[in-house]
Amino acid sequence: MSETKKFMYINRRPPYGTVYPLEGLEVVLIGAAFEQDVCMAFISDGVFQLKQGQDTIESGMKNFSPTYRALGDYEVTRIYVERESLEERGLTEADLMPLTWEDEDDDWAEKPSIQIVSRTQLSDLLEEQDVVFNF
Amino acid sequence: MSETKKFMYINRRPPYGTVYPLEGLEVVLIGAAFEQDVCMAFISDGVFQLKQGQDTIESGMKNFSPTYRALGDYEVTRIYVERESLEERGLTEADLMPLTWEDEDDDWAEKPSIQIVSRTQLSDLLEEQDVVFNF
Amino acid sequence: MKLAVMVNEGPYTHQASDTAYNFIVAALAAGHEIFRVFFYHDGVNNGTRLSTPPQDDRHIVNRWSELSKAHDLDLVVCVAAAQRRGIVDPDEAKRNGKDSDNIAPGFRISGLGQLIEAGIQADRLLVFGD
Amino acid sequence: MKLAVMVNEGPYTHQASDTAYNFIVAALAAGHEIFRVFFYHDGVNNGTRLSTPPQDDRHIVNRWSELSKAHDLDLVVCVAAAQRRGIVDPDEAKRNGKDSDNIAPGFRISGLGQLIEAGIQADRLLVFGD
Amino acid sequence: MLHTVNKSSFESASLKICLGLAKSGSDILLIEDGVYGALAGTIHATMLAEATSAVSVYALGPDLKARGLPEDRLISGIKVVGYDGFVELACANDKVQSWL
Amino acid sequence: MLHTVNKSSFESASLKICLGLAKSGSDILLIEDGVYGALAGTIHATMLAEATSAVSVYALGPDLKARGLPEDRLISGIKVVGYDGFVELACANDKVQSWL
């Protein structure tokens, strides 16, 4: 497996109502070991996955939101969030968990992983990929 | 179980994409043996369940649409279809399978089971029920 | 009051099973009677004893079995929906020529009439699904 | 061409499993290679041998097993998704202390790496789900 | 009559269909992903805000918390209840209709 | 790039989201309940009819037939294909994105 492909994981669903976001995240973490060119996109209700302050104690479900903060350690450093999806939902970037990665080529400087992009930009990014997963 | 309750089975989903309409119909047929006051309502994409001319041979699925024609024999004689849902989908009553029942109090005359009702009428009918199932 | 509950989705995949469980716990705490919990559609998958979720997550199947034991809950899995999806008890296994079964403790397999009866007998029927 | 297929929903409940099957049959007929079929989320429920659908309906699980045999298809059930949902082979049963297993002929249980590998190796990946 | 809605209004027509059939005086409880419909400042907020004059709208607190939605972000007039409040609403109404 | 849509446009936002992200020149294949989006004369027909100038829209014939939707009821310009045509579209495009 010497090839390197461009993988995009598109997240379109809100967390907790279904298991897709959690099981989708498991794919991304396992996929990190394969050293492909990986990015994630959060669109539509998928942007709610990154909402700050998730607390599942009363509902009895597993709070998997801390896992997003580990993505940087798995070298998932490009996380695109669609601006229009945020706006339609009355959200801003400040509502999202701050996600970062450490750049080893820049003295391990901590850099933000989340990039807010327009629908048009996301459409361009989608076109560049080799493999697209949708959770 | 001497009580008689008003049961409404609301059908809101299109056929074949999911098993809910088929398994919902199984509930109605079994429920018929309990001699309650039963009616069915077809709203939103549920109206597609009654579309004429379903042919599943090429897709390999089970064509369960003939079962709707048997509803009259199970004494399910009131089948409400929401007019607005038909209109939004470009359908008319002529697109639907003709469903009938035989009225034993009227010399077994064959009568139509389908009644096209407005959203307001359906809202009134819903309010009259004791138990509502949603498939 | 006498409440009946219908669960239409499998564990984990949809939240329906969690919400039904939390609702029932609250109803029991408030002194209500749970006439029956009926599992239909993919809801029948709540009744497999072969589930092994990650250790840091809730065990939905065991939670149902334990609640059933503690409160004598009637957990009924629809036979027709269970046959399609491969949930079987020893009787069903024998009837359908299967070499094993997978029903969890506290669950029983029965017909759709049990759902209609619940609708008739209970003061309220609550449906949880997708 | 080398095609990989991902199936994310259980049999009957959603059409995804039917569409994936019909797509694969057509792809094989056109001379393409199916690198792997990976079952994830509720898709793992395609792999239970305990399913007994009504006799006038298609038998989705058997259909997969037969297609696998006829075309040497690699049918992989994700282990993590299968553990949550109670799909186990003899090894998994032993590992998790279960008294029985339910995997159908032609299916094997393996990790998510098999999905990523399919994405890398295949010329196209097709996802069928809900 | 109590109506429950468990789908996001951004992805599903459930809330709209519910509001189209719910009579004045009904109770509507948003649960699971349905609680996103309670958010103020969204493209759908007007639909629910206008409905609150005719129906009482509730949102399930544990589902709001799971999703990180604080009460001060909700459309005004929406009441937050727990599972105990859900049980009370189910009993106080003559029947429950789940818009799945 | 081939986009597939398998949900009814009356119930789900999938088709709208797909059209929002599909570039000019893309292929879009409606399958399963997605084929309802191909119906002419519906409240959503304009959305897809306008898109057909920029993208090629296909509908899966076996799914149309299962649902009793004859070809003469479809938005003009939509091409009907079988499973073999689905395979051809998947191979002719460099990748496939399923809008579920």
Quick structural gist:
Chain A has 135 residues and is of the alpha/beta class. Chain A contains 4 helices and 7 strands; from the N terminus they run βαβαβαβββαβ. The longest helix of chain A is centred in the N-terminal third of the chain and has 12 residues, at 20-31.
List keywords for this structure.
heterohexamer, C: 130 residues, alpha/beta, Hypothetical Protein Ychn, Chain: A, 5-stranded parallel β-sheet, 5 helices, E: 100 residues, globular
The poorly predicted ranges of chain C are none
Output the radius of gyration of chain C: 14 Å
Q: What quaternary form is this?
A: heterohexamer
Q: How helical, in percent, are the residues of chain C?
A: 25-40%
Q: Helix amount of chain A, in percent?
A: 10-25%
Question: What is the largest interface, and how many residues per chain?
Answer: C-D, 28 and 28 residues
Mean residue pLDDT of chain C: 98
Number of DSSP helical runs of chain C: 5
Description:
The complex is a heterohexamer, with 2 copies of chain A (135 residues), 2 copies of chain C (130 residues) and 2 copies of chain E (100 residues). Chain A is of the alpha/beta class and 135 residues long. Chain A has a single domain, classed as Hypothetical Protein Ychn, Chain: A (3-Layer(aba) Sandwich). Chain A contains 4 helices and 7 strands. Chain A has helices spanning 20-31, 66-69, 83-88, 119-128, and strands at residues 6-11, 37-42, 79-82, 100-103, 109-112, 114-117, 131-134. Chain A has a 5-stranded parallel sheet. Chain A has a two-stranded antiparallel sheet with strand order 4-5. The longest helix of chain A is centred in the first third of the chain and has 12 residues, at 20-31. Chain A is globular. Chain C has 130 residues and is an alpha/beta fold. Chain C has a single domain, classed as DsrEFH-like (Hypothetical Protein Ychn, Chain: A, 3-Layer(aba) Sandwich), CATH 3.40.1260. Chain C has helices spanning 16-29, 60-71, 79-85, 90-95, 113-121, and strands at residues 2-7, 33-39, 75-78, 107-110, 124-128. Chain C is globular and about 45 Å long. Chain E has one domain: DsrEFH-like (Hypothetical Protein Ychn, Chain: A, 3-Layer(aba) Sandwich), CATH 3.40.1260.10. Chain E has helices at residues 14-21, 45-51, 61-66, 83-92; strands spanning 2-5, 27-30, 56-60, 79-81, 96-99. Chain E is globular. Chains in contact: A-C, A-D, A-E, A-F, B-C, B-D, B-E, B-F, C-D, C-E, D-F, E-F. The interface between C and D is medium-sized, with 28 and 28 residues.
